[in-house]
Amino acid sequence: TGELPDWAKFVSPEMKQYFRLHLLCTKPDAKTVTIRLDHDSAEAALAAQRGPANHLAGVIKRALKKLGIDTELAFNLEFNHTGSTENHPLHIHGAVCISDERMNEVSEVLRKALALGYRQRYTNLAVHIEKPRSAHWWAAYCIKEYGITAGKLKADRGRQNRPDYATQKLTHGAKAFYDGISDWLST
């Protein structure tokens, strides 16, 4: 019809998260982030009353606040399928805005907050932060197992839990970005 489906009624949660992540990765100082959680952090998140994504977002925000950083944040939870029990399978793929010169200190504070007990193997760093190579590719990568992770969280926790997190400001921005695409299509 020349316009996109209504955001509130017809866009799935994972596609909304795609647009949040895509938008965030196009901002100045955007960085992609992967955090492989240690057992203690993962188990605390999975047991958290308010849900694992919200719990981990709180930990991340408090860690960044210690560095004087207040920024937009979006991420997805995912479980790896290696079967190894040395490290916990729960990990995070997402994006954050931080300056290049702060990447190392942010990486270290996040490692201490969430991955201190993670055992690094080969190139699997506990916290990996880098500039986005492609906003589209990273956003799609982050949501690739949205449904699988949501299903596992529901089965393990006995209730619906979304495997994503995004700041409210970013959600409003993503909706405006989406609506702008729809407006462009209809002209």
Which labels suit this protein?
single chain; 187 residues; alpha+beta; 5-stranded antiparallel beta sheet; 8 helices; 49% helix
End-to-end distance? 11 Å
Mean of pLDDT: 93
Biggest sheet layout: 5 strands, antiparallel
Sketch the topology as an H/E string, one letter per element.
HHEHHEEHEHHEH
Give the overall silhouette.
globular
Structural class: alpha+beta
Radius of gyration: 17 Å
What are the low-pLDDT stretches, counting only 5+ consecutive residues below 50? Answer: none
Sequence of strands across the biggest β-sheet: 4-1-3-2-5
Percentage of residues assigned to helices: 40-55%
How would you describe this protein?
With 187 residues, the protein is of the alpha+beta class. It is 49% helix and 16% strand. It is built from eight helices and five strands; from the N terminus they run ααβααββαβααβα. It has helices at 7-10, 13-25, 39-47, 52-66, 103-114, 135-142, 146-157, 168-185, and strands at residues 30-36, 73-79, 90-97, 127-130, 164-166. A five-stranded antiparallel β-sheet has the order 4-1-3-2-5, with helices on both faces. Helix 2 runs antiparallel to helix 6 (135-142), helix 2 crosses helix 8 and helix 3 (39-47) crosses helix 4. The longest helix is centred in the C-terminal third of the chain and has 18 residues, at 168-185. The protein is globular and about 55 Å long. The relative contact order is 0.24.
Task: Describe the protein's topology.
Elements: H1 7-10, H2 13-25, E1 30-36, H3 39-47, H4 52-66, E2 73-79, E3 90-97, H5 103-114, E4 127-130, H6 135-142, H7 146-157, E5 164-166, H8 168-185
Antiparallel strand pairs: 1-3, 1-4, 2-3, 2-5
